[in-house]
Every structure is written in C-alpha cells, then in structure tokens.
Amino acid sequence: STQSTWAILYPLMQCADIFFLKADICQLGVDQRKVNMLAREYCDAIGKKLKPVILSHHMLYGLVKGQSKMSKSNPDSAIFMEDSPEEVRRKIENAYCPSEVESSGHAEDDGMHLEKDELKNPILDYVRFIIFSRNGTFKAGEKEYHGWQEVQKDFLDKTLSEKDLKDGVIDAVNKLLDPIRAHFRDDADAKELLEIIKSQYKVLADKQVADEVAPEVGTIYTVFAPMPTISQVPLASVLSVLRQLSAVPQGVTTLLWLRDWSAFVCNCLNGEEAAIRGAYIVLIEALNILAPEVMKNVRVVWQSEHILRDPNDYWITAIKEGKDIPVEIMRTVIGQNSEQQPSSDIIYPLMHISDVKTSKVTHIITPPEEEPLHRFVNDVANAQVTIIPVAFQLPTLKDQAHPGDLDNFISVLNSEMDVNSRIKKSFCEPGNVAFCPPLALVKEIIMPLSGGLFRLERNEESGGTKEYTDFSVLESEYAQSLVHPKDLKTNITRYLKDILNPVREHLKSNAAAKKSVTDLTNFQKKKKKKKKKK
For position 404, what pLDDT does the model report? Predict the structure, then answer.
C-alpha cells in the first residue's frame, strides 16, 4: 500500500519489451533480474516453451554512502559521460571509501549484486569493473598494479592510502573520458546533441508551461458505456446509457465511449475480445433502434481506436499522470482492499486518466457508482472536468439476487418466451411497493420509452382498462391493492414485446449485429462447458 503505481507499471512494461522485441537473450543489470524473471514466469502462463535467457550483470555501488547502486537522480552518486575533469575529481575525492566493514555503510543489496561483498567500497568497485575491464594495468601512488585483487589487498593492508587510490582512479577515469569529451567538443552534431541533453529540464519546464496555457477546446460531453460483465447485455444497461445521453444539452458534442481495452485489462467476459466487442455492438445497435433521434447527435468512440491514433500520447499521459499515485489511493477508487489485487486494478484507472485527458472532455455524465472514478481523475490529474451524476435504479427481478442468475434481469437478447418467463417469475407481492421489480420496470423503462404513458388493460371485474401518465398514481393504487400483480405483469410483457421486437429483428438482419450475437452466444456456450467440466 505504500508503493506508487510506477512499481506496478515498470515491471509490466519491461516484460512487454521482452515479448515485443521477441528477445531470446536479455542482458541487463542484476537489479532488473526479478523483473526479467517475470517474463519467464509468464511463458508458463501462456504455454511458451522457449523462455528468454536472462544474463544479469554487476551493478556499481553509488559513490555516496548508503547507496547499493548508482542513482541518476543524485548526480554525486555516479560519474556521467559528460562530466568535466573537475567534476570527476570532486566526485571521486568525496566518495565513500571504507577500508573496513561498517555496519552503517551501504544499504542492504537486496539482490543488487552477483557476489557477496561485505566491504561495499565503490572506489574499489570502479577499479575492478571499470578500469581493469579495459586496461591491464592501474597506477596508484608509486606502484603499477596488474590485477584488482592486488589493489584491494594493498588498500586493506594500509599500504595504499585512500588519497593515492582515489588519485589513481581520477586519472584513469579522466583518461577514459577524454576521447568522449573531445568528440562532443569537436563534432558539430554531437555537440548539439549534448546541449539538448543538458537543457532537457528547461525543455520539459517550457512544455509544462505551454500545456498550462493551451487554448480552450469546445464543450465536449462524454458518457462512458458500462464495461460488459455478462454476455447477455441487460436492457437496464441500455436504458441507463440512454438516460445519460438524454441529459446532454442540445447542440453539444457528445461522445459515447466504449472501453473495450479497459474491459480486456479487467478480464471482463474472461478477456475474450470478440465477446467484449460483441457486447458493445449489441448495446449500440439497441440504442440506435430504441432512440434514433438521440443517437443522431452522438459520436461513438472505441477506446482501442482512440488509443491507436496516437499511442505515444495516450500511454505517456497514463504513465506521466499516474506513476506517483500511491497504490492505496487506487484501492479506494476501485473499492478493492485485498493485498492480492491484480495489476489490472492499477492499469484500468490510469487508462481512464488518459481517456479523459487525451479526449479533451469537459463534462462527464455518469451513474453515481462511477462518480468516484471520474473524481479521481480530477483529483490526481487536475482534469477540471464537470461531473454530472444521473441515477438509474432498476432492482433485480427476484427478491434474492443470485450472481450469474440470468432470470434476474431482462436482456435485449432474450426471446419473447424468455422475457415472459422472467416477468412471470419476478417478485411482485400484492400491495408491496417498497420492493416491486415490475413496478420499477414501468417507471424506469416502459413509461420513458412509451411517451410517459402506461396503459393497463384488464377485464371489467378487475377494474377495467386504465391509462396512467403519472407513475405515482399507479404506485399508489398498487399499494392499495387496486392493481393485481397478474394484471401488472401481463401488461408489462405486452409492452416489453413491443419495445424489444424491433431490436430483435435488427439484431437478426444487421450483419455486424448478427455476428456479435453469435460471438456472445458462443462465449456463453464455452462458459457453460467449462463449468460442467469443473
């Protein structure tokens, strides 16, 4: 919980490098060994027989006391290629150089080195791994040495003083760097490159200022479609999205964002891309049939297509904005408190940051349950997006909800027989308006899609046919047992038939929609088959 998200992103990115490059052999510092071994472990998960070979190399100690390796963030911990002779001398003269083991010396190696070294002397490290890796001799004091072991012995025996040892290292390192300095001094292209490197912080600072004063973009409203968690595409999900889209002011650019890659990252529908895409296509086609006038003003955006238009901008935004966010904050956003949370719980919120920032969205209309996710973007990435919650509450059809029970909701993929069966089995206690799923269907789905009208057809003995334009009147009469559950259910099935039949016909006749339904059906069959095997 004390880690920042970069600690999750970095190993994932390094593993991705290995597979993207199809690397057979990976040569890196030993500090990267644990990360690289993840790539080998991943081979087991995907059934890849030929694993990359990991060759780990020694890590030089940092010149500053307490550093088990060099640090680019501390200029005094290492010698840099562009360091002047004076800078090299200053750094080496000030470097930590113990001749005896000190318990308060360098930090624990934590697997940073290939050999056990109690002394942890960075100057002797330079002699062995830099000077003797290139030269056969090393001069310190009045003596010429032909092996690093000899240098170490004399230093520990006090035959070689710290000053003479450091002077010898200063001379050897400067001789090593002199040809490089000459190249960057005399070659025009190299000189220009070095100046760019030295001014990198100024360039980054200027870019940050430019970003802050970037011109205003137009008003853009965005609705994020729910990620598919089941293959049935609930009618409630369609109507929830429709209600959000209907809340957008007229004449304003509206995006309907389909989070297909985020759904893949979160393993929705077992991470099967065809099923994820199919669920979204069915959602869009249902919206086109049920609310064509609303959809005329909506631009559908596939997250994957948006990312691939400028992947550099997208992923750099995710990394830049998210690398320092504590994992604990991520847990709060996604409502996950487990210590064993998957890395997708880190990647998904970072992708959401990029979705918002790179699309230049100004307003987000959202169901209340996703409001924390959007506010998270405002808080950590200074997005300054206006968040507008729009509620849509539809209870399950039964009194007790059972995860995975398909009888608990109405899907746009249900046949007329399936819908009738589910409504017939739905909980509908006489006079109970506190929990009455059929009444909720009338309020949230039927009346909004029927121009605000609900016509209750029944025989004269039961009270005769009556039309309701005010839901509260129907609710009140049901509470007084003036409306019988059977009559209510019978009329609901009639309305749902009229609502869903055009959707069903379209899903059968439209080629893309038809394929999507097939993909979802195949996914459901495969899921049932796996369940039977267990």
Answer: 57
